[in-house]
Amino acid sequence: MKKKNETGTDAAAPASPDFEQAMARLEEIVAEMESGDLSLEHMMKRFEEGQKLLAFCSTRLGDIEKKIEILTRDGDGVKAEPFDPSAADDNAQH
Fold it and tell me: What is the C-alpha separation between 46 and 30, in angstroms, rounded?
């Protein structure tokens, strides 16, 4: 019988990190790499781990960006429109 953790999932099955955990780990990796205390072999392992975390975070951000909607006022109430990142960039520059 498999042991359950606090969330009720199998303790043996590693959970994928959420965005915040992945970003925190990336920050740890950067600090380790910048310290200069890692051997070349460990530096490469951290680099590979960082690349995987970076890909995960980029994918999550892309997924979230697709889901973002801007709520605008319409004559009869609220209307949802898809998020247009170029429009946000234009508004930020003005």
Answer: 9
